[in-house]
Design a protein that fits this description.
- By secondary structure, the chain is an alpha/beta fold.
- It has a domain at 114-286: 2-Layer Sandwich (Nucleotidyltransferase, domain 5), CATH 3.30.420.310.
- It has helices at 43-55, 87-92, 122-132, 168-178, 190-199, 206-210, 212-218, 227-246, 261-273, 283-300; strands spanning 5-10, 15-20, 26-32, 63-66, 81-82, 95-98, 101-103, 107-110, 116-119, 140-145, 150-156, 159-166, 255-259, 278-282.
- Helix 4 (168-178) packs antiparallel against helix 8 (227-246) and helix 5 (190-199) crosses helix 8.
């Protein structure tokens, strides 16, 4: 008997694919250098059929896809579902691109300053995280999904009610490569990272605080190679201190950190410094749980 589902997280830079059995357990896993930013218009369907399916022995297996494959850069646009939304709302808005192949919609909510906020891909991890433990579908949960565009999310009774995006990862990349704050070496100096956390304060006046990354080197005899770590701490510290307030989150509410363990570790350090209870959860396992749950719910519809 072949696999029960071909589950894919198809992002901007790469594609991660798994085959799952009838209980949602991983049968096989492969990664492909097929991020949607690297594909020509109209290529996604052919590359999926000719490369992804055969590599996993899943030529005829139903497939569930999430991520930027459902954006204007991807296979086709899977329209956003509006918050509040949980698994049933996402399942109802799945976009079928060919028989047995469906794409999960992104989510849209009212953001800060009256503008909309959007996510695409994170919703599957978030709802998979909820699906992993029944008690997470009860009451209120605060989840942070670190990344290039970090998401801070309120979940109430199993539905995403609101979220805020912080472009911390992208801002770090731009500043560390193309500004006077650029520096050489990896961001692995934890003393400098902690110094940056302290300099972040409550997250206000970030533009002024950022200049300290340069001033501490040219005027304070700090080593230039410590700048990437300091800058990382400053940006993450400012995000962690200020962004939850935009969602009306009080300082004492625990935070679930969902995503890559190493990146979540930096956020944990920032939250620990503020005395905020937190726990790290595996983003990949949550994504698979979300894709599996959506496939099962869609099949029952």
């Amino acid at each position: 008997m072949g696999p029960g589902l071909l589950a894919c997280d198809w992002g901007t830079t790469n594609l991660r694919a798994w085959t799952l059995d009838g209980a949602g357990q991983v049968v096989a896993h492969k990664e492909f250098d097929l991020g949607v930013s690297k594909l020509q218009p109209g290529q996604a369907a052919k590359r999926f059929r000719d490369e992804v399916r055969p590599a996993l022995g899943a030529e005829r297996t139903p497939a569930m896809l999430c991520g930027m494959v459902g954006s204007t850069l991807g296979w086709t646009v899977a329209p956003y579902a509006d918050c509040p939304a949980g698994l049933p709302e996402l399942a109802a808005r799945l976009t079928e691109v060919e028989p047995g192949v469906r794409i999960v919609p992104g989510l849209r909510c009212e953001g800060i300053a009256g503008a909309p906020d959007v996510m695409r891909g994170e919703e599957t991890q978030l709802m998979g995280w909820v699906a992993q433990r029944p008690e997470r579908a009860r009451g209120r949960q605060v989840v942070c999904h670190p990344g290039t565009h970090a998401k801070w999310v309120l979940i109430e009774d199993g539905r995403i009610v609101r979220f805020v995006t912080a472009m911390t990862g992208e801002l770090y990349a731009v500043l560390s490569r193309h500004s006077v704050l650029k520096g050489e070496g990896p961001a692995d100096d934890m003393d400098a990272f902690d110094e940056g956390l302290a300099a972040a304060g409550g997250g206000e006046a970030l533009a002024a605080r950022l200049f300290t990354a340069r001033a501490r080197v040219v005027g304070g005899d700090k080593p230039a190679q410590s700048t990437p770590s300091y800058l990382s701490g400053l940006l993450i510290g400012a995000e962690v201190a200020a962004t939850p307030r935009l969602l009306g989150v009080a300082g004492g509410e625990p935070v679930a950190l969902l995503g890559d363990a190493a990146l979540c570790g930096f956020y944990k350090r920032a939250l620990d410094r503020l005395g905020v209870a937190n726990q790290i959860f595996d983003g990949e396992a949550a994504a698979l749980a979300g894709l599996f749950a959506l496939n099962r719910m869609g099949a029952d519809a």
